Amino acid sequence: MKQLLYMAIGAVILALLASFAGFGDQGASRAQHFASDRYFVIGGQHITVPVVALRGPGHVFNLGAHATERTNASEVSPDSYHPVQANKLDLIIREYQYTGEMLASTAICPLLKRTWSQTICQGPRRGLLRRLPEQFDLLDEGRLDLLKDYWTVGRERMLDQIGGKTPPLGVTKIGCDQHSPFCTAIVEVLPNLLAVWTISSEEKSGSKTEQIADAQGAAIVQFVRRGLGPREDKSLVDLD
C-alpha cells in the first residue's frame, strides 16, 4: 500500500517538474516580471511594491493639473530614481505563489526583493500580516474625489460613505451600505496618503465591524510605513 502511495506522489512530482520545464525561458521571464519592483509617489509618499502585488489594470496616474489616466501600473518603468506619480494604486496581499497563468508561478517567491513579500508569497500569513485585508487601495488625499466613481456592493458611492472628509492620521473611519453587509473603511497611513478598503460583517451597525476595521486599519498603517517605503523594516514580518 505504501509503495503505491509513494509511486503516486512521485508521479505528481514528475508532472509538476515537467510543467515547470515546459515554460522554459518564457516562464522564467514572466516570474521575473511578477517579482520585480515598481516605484511610485502617492500624496508625496514614496511607495515600492512588486508587480505581483498590483491588482488589475485600473491604476490612476497624474497627468498634471486635474487630469488623470487609467493604465496598468505593472507596465511602468522599474526605475527607483524616477518613481511614477500616481493618484491611486490597487493592491492585493495574498499567497503569490499561485498568481498568474502558469504553474511555475511558484518561481516568483525566491525572486521577490522584500522579506514581507517572500513571507506572504509562500504563506501562510502570520502576525500583523495576517490582519491585513487581501485587497486595499492607496490614494492621494488630494484626489479623494476619485472615490465618487467607485461603487460599493450596495450601489452606493464610496465618497458618500466616508463623508468626503478623512479622519485624523492613523484613525480608521467606516461607512456602511444600507442594504448590504459591506462597509467602506479609510485610514490616513502617512500624511496625505490614504488606504481605502471594503469590509464585511453581519453586524454592520455594531462594534464588531468597528473592531474589524480598527484592527485592519492599524495593520495597514504599519505595513505601509514599514514595508512599502523606500527601505523595508524587515522586523515587520515578526510583529504580532
Element pattern in H and E: HEEEEEHHEHEEEH
**Oligomer description:** single chain
What fraction strand?
Answer: 15-25%
Helix/strand-derived category reads alpha+beta
- Report how far apart the termini are: 44 Å
Low-confidence stretches: 1-23, 58-70
Helix % is: 25-40%
Shape: globular
Gyration radius, rounded: 20 Å
Mean pLDDT: 79
Count of strand segments: 9
Largest sheet: 9 strands, mixed
Helix count? Answer: 5
Throw out a few tags for this protein:
30% helix, 240 residues, disordered N terminus, nine-stranded mixed beta sheet, alpha+beta, globular
What does this 3D model show about the protein?
It is a single chain. With 240 residues, this protein is of the alpha+beta class. It contains five helices and nine strands. It has helices spanning 2-35, 115-122, 127-130, 158-162, 207-227, and strands at residues 37-42, 45-50, 59-62, 68-71, 84-92, 135-140, 173-176, 182-190, 193-200. Strands 1, 2, 3, 4, 5, 6, 7, 8 and 9 form a nine-stranded mixed sheet that branches. A hairpin with a 2-residue loop joins strand 8 and strand 9 (193-200).
Question: How would you summarize what this structure contains?
Answer:
By secondary structure, this protein is of the alpha+beta class. Helix content is 30%, strand content 23%.
Itemize the secondary structure elements and their pairings:
Blueprint: H1 2-35, E1 37-42, E2 45-50, E3 59-62, E4 68-71, E5 84-92, H2 115-122, H3 127-130, E6 135-140, H4 158-162, E7 173-176, E8 182-190, E9 193-200, H5 207-227
Parallel strand pairs: 1-5
Antiparallel strand pairs: 1-2, 3-4, 3-5, 5-6, 6-9, 7-8, 8-9
